[in-house]
Amino acid sequence: MNTTIDTPLNVISLENNNFNLYRLNIVELYRQVFSESSWKEGWKCSCGFQCSYWDIPDWFCSDCWEKMQDYYSQEEIEWFVKSIFEKDYYQALLWLSSSNKVVAFTWWWIDNLVGLNDEKLWLCMPKLKELRETLKKRWYDIEEAFYYQSETWVDPREQWKWYGKDIISINQDILRENQDKVSQVIQRTSKQSRMFNMRLAQWYELVYEYCDAAERVLFAKKV
Predict the structure, then answer these.
(1) 3-state DSSP: the chain helix, strand, coil percent, rounded to 5?
(2) Can you give the pLDDT at residue 57?
(3) Among 59, 112, 143, 184, which residue's Cβ finds the most Cβ atoms within 10 Å?
(4) Is residue 164 classed as helix, strand or coil in its secondary structure?
(5) How many helices (H) and strands (E) does the chain have?
(6) pLDDT score at 3
(7) How far is CA 65 from CA 55, 59, 69, 82, 131, in A?
(8) What are the backbone dihedrals phi and psi of residue 121, each rounded to the nearest 5 degrees, phi first?
(9) pLDDT tens per residue across all 223 residues of the chain
(10) Which tens digit of pLDDT belongs to each residue from 204-222?
């Protein structure tokens, strides 16, 4: 993998008509981000073992010594990212270096709780009802649409440059500009993610805990 990183100069919208220009960079960035120690979705083995790219330098499983494979195939990542183009209202942004290398990426879309649950929240009906009651008690309009902040990736080798804060700042600006469409936000993240503390610092409300091994949670906030 390429380890050369430049200084990002501009932010552009990712659309269906320019996806092919950046798809290989997006695939590499996705793999780098989810290979981090908190996710360990870099290599995988048929025996079930998985680890980050940096845990095993020789590509062989430490449990069975079979050759490891990428946790996510290129086709899987491309399909996942391109699925955003099918949404009625979305925004996807790329942070580009001076050599047009993608070093950060974020996207979001607008949908109601039922639609978001089917696609992203994945709560069973009793748990979805519990979430709806919690939101209602905190004065969220559960019948109206939510802005769902989905993936936010920053190259792990660039974390010290605080692009994550830039991404959040831009997203906040977009929210304010689109208050006529949506006035409330919901986001799934993990206590193991850097995003968790950033959302707490921005006064997001913790509205649901999955109580799973990944320590996933849901945050919400009114615009």
Answers:
(1) 35, 25, 35
(2) 60
(3) 184
(4) helix
(5) 6, 10
(6) 39
(7) 14, 9, 12, 35, 44
(8) -80, -40
(9) 333 444 556 899 999 999 999 999 999 999 988 887 677 889 999 999 988 887 766 788 888 989 999 999 999 999 999 999 999 889 999 999 888 889 999 999 999 999 999 999 999 999 999 999 999 999 999 999 999 998 888 888 777 676 777 787 888 888 888 778 899 999 999 998 888 998 999 899 999 999 998 899 999 999 8
(10) 999 999 999 889 999 999 9
CA 90 to chain centre: 14
Residue type, 195: M
Q: What is the pTM of this model?
A: 0.86
Tokens of 50: 């998985």
Residues belonging to the chain: 223
Tokens, residue 76: 């899987």
* Cβ-count burial 73-109 (b if 16+ within 10 Å, e if not): eeeebbeebeebeebeebbbbbbbbeeebbbbbbbbb
Kindly compute the dihedral angle of the four CA atoms of residues 34, 54, 69, 100, in this order, to the nearest 10 degrees. Answer: 60
Give CA–CA dist 191/214, Å, rounded.
8
Cβ–Cβ under 8 Å, residues 149 and 185:
yes
Say how far apart CA 119 and CA 126 lie, in whole Å: 17
The residue ranges of every structural domain in the chain are 8-14+84-222
